[in-house]
Amino acid sequence: MGSISSAEILCVGTELLLGDIINTDAAYLSRQLAELGIPVYYQGVVGDNPERLTAALGAALGRAELVVMSGGLGPTCDDLTKETVARFFGREMELHEPSLERIRTYFAECARHMTDNNIKQAMMPRGAIIFPNDYGTAPALALEGSVPGVAGERTVIMLPGPPRELEPLFFEQVRPYLARRTGGVLVSRNINILGMGESAVEDELRGLMNSSENPTLAPYCGSGEVRLRVTARAADEATARSMCDGMIETVRRTAVAPYIYDIDSPSIEDTVIRRLRARGMTIACAESCTGGLVAKRLTDVAGCSDVFMGGCVTYSNDAKARLLGVREESLGRYGAVSEQVALEMARGVRERLGTDVSISTTGIAGPGGGTPEKPVGTIWIAISTREREFARLLRLSPHRERAYLRTLASNQALALTFEV
Q1: Neighbours of 153 (CB within 10 A)
Q2: How high is the pLDDT of residue 36?
Q3: How many helices (H) and strands (E) does the chain have?
Q4: For residue 359, which phi and psi values (nearest 5 degrees)?
Q5: Chain centroid, CA 216 distance in Å
Q6: CB–CB of 7/42 below 8 Å?
Q7: pLDDT confidence of residue 2
C-alpha cells in the first residue's frame, strides 16, 4: 500500500444522529489525521441501519483512499460495521482466537459474566489487521486492498465508538500504523497566544501562512485564546522539529510576539503552575464573579498542591468582609466591582493563606446586574505579592454568555501572574 492522499471519517451510531451523544470522535480523529499530514475531505454520521450504512460506506470508499470509522463494533445485532466493510472487500468473517481470549480475560479480570454475544466482537474479516483493545472488549481493525467497482487500493480502519477506548487505541496503535504511510515524519508544535484575537493574529501572519508550505502555520481559536500550530514534514523527527523551531522564531519577530505566553502548553493554568514551581512560589485565589473557576482550573493540573494553596469564593459582600477582610468602607464607597475591592480581596487571601502570590476576580458576568456605569462584562482582576499589588479592568462584551465571560476573566486573572 502506498502513501495516503485523501481520507474520510464515518461515524456510526443512531445516538449520534439523535443528539444523545456529542460526536467527539470526529473532532479527535480529524486532529490526529491532520497531524499525520493526511487530508480529510469529508465527515459523515450514519445510524445503525444496514442499508444506510452500506450506502454511506460505498460513497466514502468512492471518494477517499482511507476511511476511518468509529462505532458499530459492539456485541449486539445492530453493530454491523465489520460485516458491512467485509462485504465491500469480499472477505468472509472468521473467528480471531487471540481476540476471543483477550475478551474472556477482560471479563474474568472484571469479575463479570461473559455472554455468548460477546463472541461476535472476536469475529473478524479474513485478512484484517487487528489492533488489540486494552481499554474495552472490541478490538480495532483495518482492512487493506481493492474494492470491486472502485479504482485504486483502499484502507478502512474500524474503531470502537466510546472515546475512552478510541482515543488511546488510535494514538498507541493506529497512529504508528498510519505514520508508516505518510511519506516521512510529521512534527507539530503549538504557539500559545493570549490577548490577541484570531482574526488579528491571522491578519498579522497572513503572508507567512500563505508563503510557507513546509512548515505550515495555522491559527486555532480556543476559549479566549489562540493557538498557532506549526507543522513540518521531514525525513526524520530531528529535522522536522528544527524546521518548527525556525518558524517559531520567525513568529517571535512579528507583532504577535508580546502575546505569546508559552510554547506547547496544554493550558494557561499549566503554564502558571510550572512557572511558579520553577521559582519556588505559591499561589492562592479569591473569587467572586468567576465562582471558583480559577481554583478549579489550577487544580486541574495534576500535582499542583506544592504551588496552589487554596482559594475563597466570596460571592456576597458579607463573605468578602468576614473571610478576606475587605473593608466595609471600600464596599460602601466603591462597590464590590471596583479596583479597591479587587486589591483587598487579593491581599486578604494572600495574607490568610500565607502565599507568595494571589489573584482575585470581581465583576458582573450577567446576564443581569449591570448598570450604565458598570455594565455586564465589567470585571476587575488583581494580583498581590509581598512587594507589589496592582489591578486591571476588563471590559468584556455584554452580549457574550455568562460562562464565556467567566472563562475570559479567569484567563486574564491567570495571565496576570506572568507580570510578577
Answers
A1: 13
A2: 84
A3: 15, 17
A4: -130, 150
A5: 20
A6: no
A7: 61
CA distance 211 to 379: 40
| pTM of the entire predicted model | 0.78
**Residue whose C-alpha is closest to residue 154's, from 69, 73, 233, 72:** 69
d(CA 131, CA 178): 12
- For residue 19, CA distances in Å to 15, 16, 47, 296 come to 6, 5, 12, 28
- Could you identify the residue written with the cell 454511506? 56
- Cα angle 20, 23, 25 (rounded to 5 degrees) comes to 140
The tens digit of pLDDT for each residue in 294-344 reads: 999 999 999 999 999 999 999 999 999 999 999 999 999 999 999 999 999
- Phi/psi of residue 408, each to 5°? -60, -40
Ranges in the chain, pLDDT < 50:
none
Q: Which amino acid is at 376?
A: V
Q: Please report where in the chains the cell 473467528 appears, as a residue.
A: 95
CA distance 12 to 170: 17
**pLDDT at residue number 236:** 86
Strands (E), 195-264: 216-221, 225-234, 260-263
> Quick check: helix, strand or coil at residue 326?
coil
Q: Cα–Cα distance between 224 and 194 in angstroms, integer?
A: 7
d(CA 157, CA 140) in angstroms, rounded, equals: 8
